[in-house]
Amino acid sequence: MINIDTFIQNLDLDSQGIWWVFLFALVVFLFMLLMPKRFSKREMYFIFGVVGYVTMVVDVTFMSTYFDVFDLGSDPQVEGIGDLISLAFIPSCLAVIFSNYYTGEKRWRYVALFVLISFFFEWVLVQVGYMKLKGWRTWWSLPVYFVIYAYWLPWQLKALRKTDVNRKVIK
Prior knowledge:
The chain is mostly helical. The protein contains six helices and two strands.
């Protein structure tokens, strides 16, 4: 039998700074839903799912568990709803938005913009107390974001479009 009090406690809704996670998630989710779509729903779902999965595996399994360089929320032993939103949902929304607007001629402009947006989100997470760093420095994430936006997401979009015979490949 499910204990509703335990369930609500495990959501970790009383974490300091969780308001920032919900606010940012709402903004990027609404933007993603309302933006004019330049790619198919298939591409959007694929990018959303893959980015969410990879982010959860890398951040939860490696960075948080093995290397133990940060904690999210009020209890490091509890994976609350804010953790899920900030590690899977928000990066997935940002990846979909980036991939939707990404073009070869404006590549570096979009890369710089989304690196800054991602860095800003993480920096505010630390400032409001939702993310507690344990040996990690926020600015160390900049090269990671750069690789993701400059190389991994464009490669993923290009590979996805190669499998779709009705689309042209981005060069």
